[in-house]
Amino acid sequence: MTRTKQALIDELVPAMLAHLASLGVDGRKLAADPAAVIVTIDGIVLDWVEPAALGSGCSVAALYSGGETPPRIAVLRDTSEGRRNFSLIHEFGHHLCPSVTAVAAALWELPDGEEGPFEEDLVDAFAAAVLLPTDIVSRIFADGVTAASVIRLWQSTTASREACCVAAAHRLPAPGYVMLVEPNSRSQFAARHGDVLPIARGSVQSATRLQSAVRGGTARGVDRPTFRSGVAGPQMYLDAQGTDGYTIAVWVTDSPDWPSLTAPLATGPVGHDGHCADCGEDFTSWKRPCGTCGEPLCPQCGACECAAGGQRPIANRLCTSCFLSLPLTAFLGDSTTCNQH
Q: Is residue 120 included in any domain, yes or no?
């Protein structure tokens, strides 16, 4: 496929919006009251649930179950109206994907393992397109994407912070992220642009430069976003600003839309270096360190500071669709995708 994934998303979102129109759905009504509109399509049922029903790995406040009859969307009862609306339209986008010929064809053509993350990016973009008028987005980002401009977009509309992050990421000048960071430095949501890897909800953002923004100030410079495993990603230009207890962090690999010194960046991630006494070898681990002693696990035998090699039963598996490490009970047999996909 010669088109970039971003260019493909740019083509597919209008196709999804056109399909909505063919169903007789008014996009303005969908944006104003997603719950009322969605239940009129294909018999979709909304289930209002508590946080435990969705799990901590969900990046949005809802979950689509398309394999059931009728199809269902579980949505958090206790969340802000803006986040709830974005989440509902995001999951409704999953429902629409098989019915839009261009989308179904594009997902079929993607390499194995890439269709899940791509569909997540696509329905994020679809939800943002429904919720945010193009003229407002264009005006706010006329001078580029910065943390301050993302905050202005959120303050100028009724859309959620997540929707604003998606709209901003779409306009980044280079690969990167627009991230919503919680007061505890964990990523609540990360919209991506280009070929960067996804950053899961709950990933602790330990970048030193980011911390002044997390404390309610601003931050600019060069640092690294952090993946769920604790591995630091490639160096990127960072612009961040705290507001109302949350932080908007804009990361780009090149050509930031704010004044910065041009410098060569280290493009590779940084793993956890350690030494295994059992194997007698130095190593670099790309997995989360031990939760008890904080030391990296030997990739050969699984040893760390508090447990010898070979004593750790395999309790988790990486889902190749949502890229989360989940308990074995979340999988059917030897499947590499969890029961939610």
A: yes
